[in-house]
Design a protein that fits this description.
The chain has 66 helices and 9 strands. The N terminus and C terminus are likely disordered. It has 1337 residues and is mainly alpha-helical. Its main location: nucleus.
Length: 1337
């Protein structure tokens, strides 16, 4: 690089003295653009970019440490210290520090002097004072971060003096210079600190206790140089009665300084360590923290106390922890947790959780301290309710002994609550409440027990993989026992009976324990994997809990259930156990495990609601026996009821009843069981499910009662919402005032005409409403007014009750509707299981219209989130699991006729929908049924079709070929979709869309073949049908599936018809004036472009399939035979004779592999002389490649169309060229031709005014075109053509140029455009039209 040899730039003074010109600014740019970009990247906000740029800068400077780049880099970095962008200053400071660290020969004093000279605080302007201050500060920090400042005594002293000078600018720098000075002095040696200490630390104790920086410097000196400090200041006791208030003020200033940073000031932690070291921690905590900072009613000071509490946990002993965790600080923390519930309010709880988690993780070897801290935080309660959340995840850091101790403490507090051991408090709003029931011990005990039972469940939920199996079983047994059983007499066989209650367990607490138990059961049954789900005996947790419940039931003298069992209910329980033993014999079957899970779950529910679960258990047992192939035990005298429903229907009803319960575990068990029985589903059983989803029938059903799941939603939160709402009354008062206006409006709306009449009657009876002579009447007396007031008060009281009753009824209806919708969402799980596990079941076809009805109804009324969820789930099942399923029903039986009618009905419904979104679902359903009909091979539909034809009722022919084995009636569905397509093309606001029919064409190309004539018919119609028809044709003709359904003659005929329609459109086109005309022209031209592209792709196939034995299309197989018969010419004269003969006969060979440009005159001789071209003999062998326009003596070839002498002038072969794909007429010929002629698919446009143009278009028209050369050039520019005026490789013409040239011809009416269009039509006519239509075209 030349920049390495450049001279160093001169300073302005040196340049003036030497007579040279000033420093060359452009010389800096000659260094390197890359070098200068380093400094831009250093200031970018991305850390990776900054670090990469700094590293590259250092590498760059290591190669030239003595060059001008080093001086420029230092100057640039020093300048960057004072830039206006605050985010760029630290970046330049860090880069300067790394530079000084890498190049230790750079003197620090010199760098510091440059910084002070650049940003002199005495000479800087007032507007630039702040950047100058920060530049000096960041300059000193750069020297310090380089690691060399503490080694350079002179630079250190200068830096200390500079920082002391900067400390005077408190308004701009605040406490940053003091912090920087403290950081610098903390790194220096003891000797250096002893030397510097008198200059930086004042000997006055008042000055030391005046700011956090001075106090922190004092603590640093006391730690490192205590003897020097004692000589300087003397003996100091910071925790004396005189100094405690000063310490409080210093800590308050420190708390205010970190208010935005939200971190613990270092001075507070240093004082804590000093108090622990001097054994004065109790005095420090009581007087400085609790009685000093905490009493200030200053939230930053309170947050400092909270952070100091969390940071002190690892430093304290067990006794000191008891002092801290039972004091005013943690009580104040609990009040903050209870009151800080607004969204914008700062919440300290997550930060405290981090402190506790860090402590528990760091003392794994001390379980006693772990247990003490966790118990202390769990004991901070608000009227009995702990402020710690039930799902406090710090328990994952507990060691196993601490976890066992914590679980034991929770169980003991549940049985015998010790309210005196709690750190209980009440908020200000709770203290102001006059309700005495809020302060009774029973309420606190209930709140505490409710929290404890959910806390136990959450521990198992979060630690189910790490917990010991015995501990998990202990928690599960504890919850089960206290939820459903009561101790009558203690026994040693049941440890749970030995634990008495200090406060009786009320019914509300048992309900909470019941809810917590089922939540625990869900965790043990669903969230655990199969490997961890099983206990040591190989049975699931639910089975062992049932065995424990049976043990309790058998000890009736010691234990009884909360709801005593009747004899029938006890028999149901015993039969359930017997059925479980029978299922063990079928343990290898998958459905046996599902039945076992269902039976166990319903059996446990027998403890909760015996009356409801008793009959359910009997029905389940009967269904299980029948499903496993066993006959149920019947009495000999009792006859079998012929009207008895199948067991599948009974089990489906049971599953629907279980889904009505607000239990996620029930939902998953029902889904699992239904997956095993859906293969034996009956139409009646499916109808039971559909009746729930159908609102016309499900709203009137009473056999399924949907229960409220509000209790289930409260499982995760143990706080009492209604009671805690008192803490937020002050914050919610504004919302209540805003809602008063809406309530008044509702009251006005609730006033009916009857109330108005009653009011008028009361007023008239009290003579409050006077007539025309009311002015002469006397006013009412006091008694009359009092009577009127009482009448009005009673009337409005009655009206208020009526309004409230109407509101309650409305709310009840809305709640019932929400519960019903939630139930329907759960029932959709069964539908999803059916369509995913049994897609080949014929009953799946019965789901189409019910699901469409749900979608159609939900799209009209999907306003709430619940309705949206219902719609999305239904649409997902319908679209992804049903219509797009890879497997479907293949055995329709006698359903074929009904399915054809359903297809017609669905297509008609799609056309009548108000929007395209709804129509798409119906159209996709019809396509799904078409696939089912097409793939079904039922013999019944074919037999039925033949019987109809014999009877004369069905005139349609019997399908043959691939359609013969299908149930699809092609004639019927053609009529259906023809009507839909015609409606789409003619109806203005049709909900059908183009993608719907394209999907139909691609999936069913045979049907598309029958619908294409309708599209061709509408190509010349009005604007909108024409545009839609052209678009559909353009897409349909490019589909391979559609092309495979046509024979070659049929395809050519279709192409000819489409081209004739497009030509008819193009003939009537004029200059487009409106948007509709532009759209009309554009659609026709795009269709024409698609036709050309399709024909171009089809041309090699025509040559390959259509040429039967012609040597011109198969040169290699027929080369030897042609040489023997003398067909191929062997010299140049014979070749020219053949070409002239071709000109005379005007034969056109349209195979794309034959349209190869012919070599120019004399080109072969030149190639042969150079040794590049083939010889005479070899040229004959390659004649089919070098002479593509080979004449045909006999015009029997299907690609050969003879021309008459009256047609347009002949064209020179080779002006239109298109190379065939490899393999069309021999891979060798194709590859060689492609390599010599410049690629495949090339078309060259010839200018009519050139020499080639004369040969192409004739002398007369060429001369006429030459006279209009200017118009020709402008036309060529508008068309975007590449005019070739000489020899060489032809230039390719993209397909878009065809469209532009047609625009050029029809809108400019130029002669060249007419000639070009004629050439294109003649060229492509051989592939598009039969010979009989060529001359007409």
């Amino acid at each position: 690089m030349g920049s390495r040899e450049l001279a160093e730039p001169l300073s302005p003074g040196e340049a003036t003295q030497s007579g040279a010109r000033p420093a060359d600014r452009h010389g800096l740019l000659k260094h390197s653009r890359e070098f200068l970009d380093f400094f831009w990247d250093i200031a970018k906000p991305e850390q990776e970019t900054r670090l990469a740029a700094t590293e590259k800068l250092l590498e760059y400077l290591r190669g030239r440490p003595k060059g001008s780049e080093m001086k420029y880099a230092l100057k640039r970095l020093i300048t960057g210290l004072g830039v206006a962008r605050e985010t760029a200053r630290p970046c330049y400071s860090l880069a300067l520090a790394q530079l000084l660290q890498s190049f230790e020969d750079l003197p620090l004093c010199s760098i510091l002097q440059q910084i002070q000279e650049k940003y002199d605080l005495c000479e800087v302007k007032k507007t630039m004072l702040r950047p100058a201050l920060f530049a000096n500060l960041f300059g000193v920090l750069a020297l310090f971060q380089s690691g060399r400042l503490v080694k350079d005594q002179e630079a250190l002293m200068k830096s200390v003096k500079l920082l002391q000078a900067l400390a005077q600018y408190q308004n701009h720098l605040q406490e940053q210079p003091g912090k920087a000075l403290l950081d610098v002095l903390s790194e220096v040696s003891v000797a250096t600190l002893q030397e510097i200490l008198p200059e930086v630390l004042k000997a006055d104790l008042n000055a030391i206790l005046s700011s956090p920086e001075q106090l922190e410097l004092f603590l640093l000196a006391q730690q490192k140089v205590p003897s020097k400090l004692k000589k300087l200041v003397g003996s100091v006791n910071l925790f004396s009665d005189e100094n405690v208030p000063r310490l409080v003020n210093v800590l308050k200033m420190a708390a205010a300084s970190v208010k935005k940073d939200r971190k613990l000031p270092a001075i507070a932690l240093d004082l804590l360590r000093l108090a622990l070291k001097e054994d004065k921690f109790p005095r420090f905590w009581k007087e400085v923290v609790e009685q000093g900072l905490l009493k200030m009613q200053f939230w930053p000071a309170s947050y400092l106390c909270f952070r100091l509490l969390g940071a002190a946990l690892p430093l304290l002993t067990k006794e000191q922890l008891q002092l801290v965790l039972r004091g005013d600080v943690i009580r104040h923390y609990g009040e903050h947790v209870c009151t800080a519930k607004l969204p914008k309010q700062f919440k300290f709880a997550p930060e405290m959780e981090d402190y506790v988690g860090t402590f528990l993780e760091g003392c794994q070897d001390d379980p006693e301290r772990q247990l003490a801290v966790l118990v202390a935080f769990s004991s901070v309660t608000n009227q009995g309710l702990p402020v710690a959340p039930t799902f406090w995840r710090v328990v994952r850091f507990l060691s196993p002994p601490a976890l066992r101790g914590y679980v034991a403490w929770l169980q003991d507090m549940f049985l015998q609550p010790d309210l005196d051991s709690l750190v209980d408090f009440s908020t200000n709003n709770q203290k102001k409440a006059q309700d005495a029931s809020l302060h009774v011990p029973e309420r606190a005990v209930f709140r505490l027990r409710k929290w404890i039972i959910f806390r136990l469940v959450s521990i198992v939920d979060s630690l189910h993989l790490e917990m010991e199996e015995a501990l998990t079983a202990q928690v599960a047994r504890f919850c089960l026992f206290h939820a459903f059983f009561v101790t009558k007499k203690p026994t040693s066989q049941i440890p749970e009976t030995k634990q008495p209650f200090s406060f009786p367990l009320e019914s509300q607490a048992r309900e909470a324990a019941s809810s917590a138990f089922f939540s625990l059961l869900q965790t043990l049954s669903t969230q655990l994997k199969q490997a961890t789900d099983q206990t040591r005996g190989g049975q699931p947790w639910t089975y062992h809990l049932v065995q424990f419940a049976d043990l309790l039931l058998n000890h009736s003298h010691n234990v009884t259930t909360v709801t005593p069992f009747s004899a029938q209910q006890r028999q149901a329980w015993d039969r359930m156990l017997q059925t479980l033993k029978e299922l063990e014999a079928h343990s290898s079957e998958a459905r046996a495990a599902a039945f076992q899970h269902l039976l166990l779950l319903v059996g446990i529910h027998l403890l909760k609601s015996p009356a409801e679960s008793c009959d359910l258990l009997g029905d389940i047992q009967t269904c299980i026996r029948k499903s496993l192939g066993e006959k149920p035990h019947r009495s000999r005298t009792k006859a079998i009821d012929p009207q008895e429903p199948p067991w599948v229907e009974v089990l489906v009803e049971i599953l629907l009843a279980l889904l009505a319960q607000p239990s996620h575990l029930m939902r998953q068990v029902a889904r699992s069981v239904f997956g095993h029985i859906c293969s034996q589903l009956t139409p009646r059983a499916l109808q039971l499910i559909l009746d729930v989803l159908n609102p016309e029938t499900s709203e009137d059903e009473d056999h399924v009662v949907v229960t409220d799941d509000s209790d289930e939603r409260r499982l995760k939160g143990a706080e009492d919402k209604s009671e805690d709402g008192e803490d937020n009354r002050s914050s919610e008062s504004e919302e209540e005032s805003e809602g008063e206006e809406s309530e008044e409006e509702e009251r006005d709306g609730d006033v009916d005409q009857g109330f108005r009449e009653q009011l008028m009657t009361v007023l008239q009876a009290g003579k409050a409403l006077g007539g025309e002579d009311s002015e002469d009447e006397e006013e009412l007396g006091d008694e009359a007014m009092m009577a009127l007031d009482q009448s009005l008060a009673s009337l409005f009281a009655e009206q208020k009750l009526r309004v409230q009753a109407r509101r309650d009824e409305k709310n009840k209806l809305q709640k019932e509707k929400a519960l019903r919708r939630d139930f329907q969402i759960r029932v959709l799980d069964l539908v999803e299981v059916l369509v995913t596990k049994q897609p080949e079941n014929a009953l799946v076809l019965e789901l189409l219209e019910p699901l469409l009805s749900i979608i159609r109804r939900s799209l009209r009324s999907s306003s709430s989130k619940q309705e949206q969820d219902f719609l999305h789930k239904t649409a997902r099942i319908f679209t992804h699991h049903l219509c797009r399923a890879r497997r479907y029903c293949h055995d329709l039986g006698e359903r074929a006729e009904a399915l054809h009618a359903q297809v017609e009905r669905l297509v008609q419904q799609a056309g009548r929908q108000p929007d395209s979104a709804t129509a798409l679902y119906h159209f996709n359903a019809s396509l799904y049924l078409l696939r089912v009909l097409k793939g079904s091979t039922a013999e019944g539909c074919m037999r039925e079709t033949r019987e109809k034809q014999k009877a004369g009722t069905d005139p349609s022919p019997v399908p043959t070929g691939p359609q013969a084995a299908s149930c699809l009636d092609l004639n019927l569905v053609t009529r259906v979709y023809s009507s839909a397509l015609s409606s789409f093309l003619t109806k203005r606001n049709s909900p059908l869309t183009v993608p719907m029919f394209l999907s139909l064409f691609s999936r069913h190309p045979v049907l598309c073949k029958r619908l294409l004539p309708i599209l061709v018919q509408h190509v010349t119609g009005p604007v909108r049908p024409r545009h839609q028809a052209c678009l559909l044709l353009q897409k349909a003709l490019s589909l391979r599936e559609v092309r495979s359904c046509f024979e070659d003659p049929e395809w050519k005929q279709l192409m000819g018809q489409v081209l004739a329609k497009v030509t008819e459109n193009l003939r009537v086109l004029g200059e487009a004036q409106t948007k509709a005309e532009h759209q009309q022209a554009l659609s026709s031209l795009e269709l024409l472009n698609a036709l050309f592209r399709t024909c171009k792709q089809e041309a090699p196939q025509v040559g390959k399939e259509g040429c039967q034995g012609g040597p011109q299309c198969h040169p290699e197989p027929y080369q030897q035979e042609a040489e023997e018969k003398g067909i191929l010419a062997r010299d140049k004269e014979a070749q020219e004779t053949q070409v002239r003969g071709w000109h005379a006969s005007r034969g056109w060979h349209t195979c794309s592999h034959r349209r190869e440009p012919a070599p120019q005159h004399g080109q072969e001789e030149e190639e042969q002389d150079k040794g590049q071209g083939p010889g005479p003999g070899k040229r004959d062998a390659c004649h089919q490649e070098s002479s593509p326009w080979h004449p045909h003596s006999e015009p029997q070839h299907r690609c050969q169309i003879p021309k008459t002498a009256e047609e347009k002038p002949e064209a020179v072969p080779g002006e239109w060229s298109s190379q065939a794909p490899r393999g069309a007429c021999g891979p060798k010929a194709a590859s060689e031709g492609s390599s010599r002629k410049g690629g495949r698919g090339q078309i060259t446009t010839v200018c009519a005014g050139t020499e080639k143009g004369k040969a192409v278009f004739g002398q007369q028209e060429s001369q006429l075109a030459s006279e209009r050369g200017q118009e020709e050039e402008s036309a060529a520019e508008e068309g975007g053509e590449a005019l070739s005026t000489g020899t060489g490789h032809p230039r390719p013409l993209p397909p878009s140029c065809l469209r532009l040239q047609f625009f050029f011809f029809f809108f400019n009416r130029d002669l060249i455009g007419k000639l070009l269009l004629w050439r294109w039509l003649c060229h492509w006519g051989g592939c598009l039209w039969p010979p009989a239509q060529a001359s007409t075209a």
